[in-house]
């Protein structure tokens, strides 16, 4: 797997440190002890980010799941998001924190934010590990951002190419000859 990576953009230790900082930022926005927080990760890319983030959050929370795909198979450009599974559990009247791996074209976040708003949450905030400022639309709000990155197709730490590399501990760029 390591031989497929042309360069590492973000090392595992830097990611871990930033996730801890993000958890502190997020915790300041929600009252301690309040049981009304539901975290909704967008599967599958956010699963590793989610696991590390919630271990750092000193909050009582529930987790609801939503599964959306926008990069099917070997594609490296975002497609129209396809909902595989709507949010589980009742989020009406609860504070919702949507967690995603990357804010790129914004299509996935826009679709999921609209889906969640239809369930009438008390509030909706969004945390993303990565954002591509050169591509992210200004009307899609990410309240908590791990890293701003250049417009590259990245893998690792949950992000994949053709369902591979999610377990790579860093965030890296594949060798160009491996992509279509």
Which CATH C-level class is it? Answer: Alpha Beta
How many helical elements? 3
Could you tell me how far the N terminus lies from the C terminus, measured between alpha carbons in angstroms?
18 Å
Q: Give the overall shape.
A: globular
Question: Structural class from helices and strands?
Answer: alpha/beta
Q: What would you report as the Rg, rounded to the nearest angstrom?
A: 16 Å
**Which stretches are poorly predicted, pLDDT < 50 over at least 5 residues?**
none
Query: How many domains, as an integer?
Result: 1
User: Within the CATH hierarchy, at the fold level, what is the topology?
Assistant: Rossmann fold
Largest sheet: 7 strands, mixed
Q: Can you offer a commentary on this structure?
A:
Helices cover 21% and strands 29% of the residues. It has helices at residues 12-27, 47-56, 107-117, and strands at 5-10, 37-43, 61-63, 66-69, 82-85, 95-103, 123-131, 144-148, 154-155, 171-174. It is globular, with a radius of gyration of 16 Å. Strand 2, helix 2 (47-56) and strand 3 form a beta-alpha-beta unit. It is of the alpha/beta class. The protein has one domain (2-178): 3-Layer(aba) Sandwich (Rossmann fold), CATH 3.40.50. Strands 2, 3, 4, 5, 6, 7 and 8 form a 7-stranded mixed sheet that branches. A 3-stranded antiparallel sheet has the order 1-10-9, covered by helices on one side.
